[in-house]
Amino acid sequence: MDNQEKEKEKEIEKENFGDVEKAEDSESEDENQKQQAKTWGKLHSLNPKFLDFELNTIDKVTMGRSRKCQYRIRDKRISSYHCEIYRIVDESSDSKPFIIKLKDLSENGTYVNGSLVGKGNEEVILLHGDDISFIYTRKPKSPPPVANFIFKDYSIVPKDRQTESKLYEFYDVQRVLGVGNYATVKLGTDKKTGEKYAIKMIDKEKYVPNQTKVERDRLMDEINILKKIRHPSVVSAKDIFDSPNILYLVIDFYLIEFKEKGRYNEEESRIVFEKIASAIQYLHRKGIVHRDLKPENILLVSKDSDIDIKIVDFGLSRIITQTDKFNTFAGTLQYLAPEVIDNKTGYGKECDIWSCGVILYILLCGYMPFSSDSRPSLARQITRCELDFPNEIFEDVSVAAKNLIRRCLVIDPKKRITADQILEHPWIKGRPEEIQSEYQDVPDQK
What we know:
Elements: H1 3-37, E1 41-45, E2 53-55, E3 60-64, E4 71-72, E5 83-89, E6 98-104, E7 110-112, E8 115-116, E9 124-125, E10 131-134, E11 147-153, H2 164-170, E12 171-179, E13 183-190, E14 196-203, H3 213-228, E15 237-242, E16 246-252, H4 266-285, E17 288-289, E18 298-303, E19 306-311, E20 318-319, H5 338-342, H6 350-365, H7 375-384, H8 391-394, H9 399-408, H10 419-423, H11 426-429
């Protein structure tokens, strides 16, 4: 081969090699674009000193003071490696294939929704709307956190739902249904299906760190719970839209409240109460305690000749474990359990069952079981369970129905009937003859 041919071959080789490099670069750019499209979440900073951060890495994101962290926070109070946020495959879910977790690596503290995670704890699952803060305490007059973020889960709120205009693209927003401390609720209609929904418009500025945390904590809990539940007798969130200033929750909408009907006959009461108990069983199995069950929060939906219900208003609801106890006074006095009023050792999900007993009493007779113009007197009636069934009102009510009320209204929460047991009670099962006395299986109240 002469020199001229060798030079030509080198040129061809160089050309080919150059094409390969170019192709690899192009492929690399495509991969980068695909990777950017796989953004699975966002950290929205509530502190103007720090930027928002898109979560789009395949493995994990480390936050801290070190240069090696993907998100660097230059503050001497922040640990070199303060926390990790990562996602793992959830093979049990088709609709949401990943679980997103946070691991605390710091000595000074990482907090989720105001609760300390604890160094090395990997069991904190992040949900859309969760508040992540560094070096913070809930104590009164405590300074704001060094850094504070709201976590956005793009599998819950897709990126195309991140602007206010998208809400109006999918829904016709109409008249105001109600106004609260931090939210306005409007009637909305799905443009495709014509279905009506309640659109809760939450003002984010009402729960920034420099203001009260009570409403913000309630809001975060309510959002997490509405996303978590799917039951025919419990209201849920159909859609969520996010914008810089407003968070929009599209939830089930119903107009008729059963409190307007007054007294139900026994068969109607049984149908309604079975649905309530089924919903409470579902919530309790999910670790959710409603804490404000009352007729105003149970909506009646009439479909043809059927009776359906929806439990609503999860503003006071919380998610707890089997061993957790509440210590805050929450709810409406007429429906509160004795342990909530006394609050000596804390209380748990059993408080919902007491409220169910009060509601069943109202269903059957149209009156409250405990009533007084004086709050101290009313509280005494409840804590002593001064319960009566006046003959002129309850003469047509079966012994089995009154027995179920008594088993719900037991002072000792450990001896109170559970939601599972309510659904197996003879009155619910249509076998009232099995109950011979209204006191059958009712624990001693002393």
